[in-house]
Amino acid sequence: MTVFAVYGATGHTGRLVSAELLARGADVIVSGRDSGALNALEATRAMPAAVDDPVALRALAEAADVLIHCAGPFADTGLPLATAAVEGGCHYVDHAVEVHHVKRLFDDFPDRAQRAGVTLLPSVSFYGGLGDLLAGAVARDIPDIDRITVAYAVSNWMMTHGAVETARLLFADTDRIGFFDGQQQYGFVEPRSAIFAFPPPVGPRPMIAPVPFPEAVTIPRHTRTRAVEAQLTAATFAEEQAFASEQVAPEARADSEFTITAQVLAGPGSAAGNLRGHNLWRAAALASVEAAVRLAGGAAKAGVSSPAEAFDATEFLTALATSGAFTLDLPGKA
Question: pLDDT tens for residues 96-106?
Answer without folding.
Answer: 999 999 999 99
